């Protein structure tokens, strides 16, 4: 199990969660009271923050709400409007020292609470969560009292890196990135020991990172490198399947988006939405789906023509897919391309039009005289590609109108391969 949200995922509830909350908060307070930071001022800030937090012990209620607000407090930049500790009924923490040092100490204490709650299998943290970095905390963690065994492996990696001499900066930077991302990945996963790591979670991380990168441009976590590091350190605890796991496009498709997943998503969209265009919008809005998934090879492998909502006696979708796929293979051969990856989004969108939108529209309009292009030679440019007829109430959208309705860009690079293929 992994956490793909920006908030906490609670694995415990009720009294069990409340008891673990008290246990972990008490431990976090103890760590801060015994702070060994070199600066007297910093030690004082941590001890004051710890004393202030003691009033939150033994409350036993609203733990989920309190922890979510505390997580938000930890993630904010320490600006003036964010200086004060969040006020929660029953958890009134003193703000007598609202200086930046005290605020930082409070945030470190709360981060220790979250880390300990993960160690005791109560929560999964969001992957954006950053554990605190401090020399005195790393010394404490080295004794095994803070992190789970898997994270301790990355703590050791950092210690080794700091002791490197006459090593290249690139190696140090690589190890530091592994240290930082490895901790974050594990804190967002239900991986408490080597035996807990499984291929399903690894697949989930790959697709989540791919979707997030596509949407926001954020850097991807080095999942394969993190796994390799864990396998090296725990050769006997990790299963053979996990050791042999590889981050590849084929694995991404076959393991993450299995046939039933795709069929359920499409059928659910057909049930929930009233018109064909809304169905397509619903499908592509699902974060498990990308336009390129509807590429010829994939829709054939996933048997999309067997989806009950698309069955129409007047249209043989399976035969249409076969004909279009054969034509596309010939197109690639003629173009002399070694792979078709560059065309996956463009032709994936064409297939959404051909094999999702049009069959649904034809099914909703059984008396129409509109010709379904069951093969490329039946695809008419003045009807199916760019229709000049005014109004579209009595006909299906053309491909260009379909692009407009979906809000997809109609750039030369995107549409020219279609023009060449369809002419």
Tell me about this structure:
With 423 residues, this protein is mainly α. Helix content is 57%, strand content 1%. The chain has 3 domains: 1-128, no CATH class; 147-256; 271-422, no CATH class. The longest helix has 21 residues, at 344-364.
Characterize this entry briefly:
The chain is mainly alpha-helical and 423 residues long. The chain contains 19 helices and 2 strands.
Number of helices: 19
Structural class estimated from helices and strands: mainly alpha
Helix percent band: 55-70%
Strand order of the largest sheet: 1-2
What is the rounded Rg? 28 Å
Q: For the residues shown, what is the average pLDDT?
A: 77
Profile the largest sheet: 2 strands, antiparallel
Approximate shape: elongated
How many strands appear in the DSSP assignment?
2
Give the CA-CA distance, first to last residue: 48 Å
Our estimate of the beta-strand percent is: under 5%
Which ranges are low-confidence, i.e. pLDDT below 50, for 5 or more consecutive residues?
Answer: 77-81
Indicate how many domains the architecture comprises. Answer: 3
Order of helices and strands: EHHHHEHHHHHHHHHHHHHHH
């Amino acid at each position: 199990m992994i956490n793909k949200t920006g908030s906490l995922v609670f694995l415990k509830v009720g009294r069990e969660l409340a008891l673990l909350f008290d246990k972990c908060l008490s431990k976090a307070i103890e760590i801060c009271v015994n702070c060994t930071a070199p600066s007297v001022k910093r030690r004082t800030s941590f001890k004051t923050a710890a004393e202030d937090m003691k009033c939150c012990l033994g409350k036993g209620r609203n733990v989920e709400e309190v922890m979510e607000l505390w997580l938000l407090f930890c993630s904010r930049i320490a600006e003036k409007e964010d200086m004060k500790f969040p006020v929660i009924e029953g958890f009134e923490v003193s703000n007598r020292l609202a200086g930046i040092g005290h605020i930082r100490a409070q945030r470190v204490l709360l981060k220790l609470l979250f880390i300990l709650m993960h160690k005791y299998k109560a929560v999964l943290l969001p992957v954006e969560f950053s554990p605190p970095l401090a020399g005195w905390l790393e010394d404490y963690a080295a004794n095994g009292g803070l992190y789970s065994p898997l994270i301790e492996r990355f703590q050791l990696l950092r210690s080794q890196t700091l002791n490197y001499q006459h090593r290249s900066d690139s190696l140090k930077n690589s190890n530091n990135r592994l240290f930082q991302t490895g901790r974050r990945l594990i804190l967002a996963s239900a991986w408490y020991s080597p035996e807990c790591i499984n291929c399903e979670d690894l697949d989930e991380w790959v697709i989540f990172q791919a979707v997030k990168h596509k949407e926001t441009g954020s850097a991807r976590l080095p999942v394969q490198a993190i796994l390799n590091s864990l396998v090296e350190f725990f050769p006997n605890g990790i299963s053979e399947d996990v050791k042999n796991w590889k981050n590849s496009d084929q694995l991404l498709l076959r393991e993450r988006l299995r046939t039933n997943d795709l069929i359920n998503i499409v059928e659910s969209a057909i049930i929930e939405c009233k018109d064909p265009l809304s169905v397509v919008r619903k499908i592509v809005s699902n974060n498990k789906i990308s336009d390129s998934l509807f590429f010829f090879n994939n829709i054939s492998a996933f048997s999309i023509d067997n989806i009950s909502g698309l069955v129409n006696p007047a249209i043989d979708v399976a035969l249409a897919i076969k004909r279009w796929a054969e034509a596309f293979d010939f197109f690639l051969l003629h173009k002399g391309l070694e792979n078709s990856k560059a065309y996956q989004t463009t032709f994936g969108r064409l297939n959404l039009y051909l094999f999702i939108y049009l069959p649904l529209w034809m099914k909703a309009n059984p008396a129409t005289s509109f010709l379904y292009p069951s093969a490329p030679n039946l695809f008419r440019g003045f009807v199916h590609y760019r229709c000049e007829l005014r109004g579209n109430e009595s006909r299906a959208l053309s491909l260009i109108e379909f692009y407009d309705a979906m809000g997809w860009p109609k750039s030369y690079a995107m549409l020219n391969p279609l023009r060449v293929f369809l002419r």
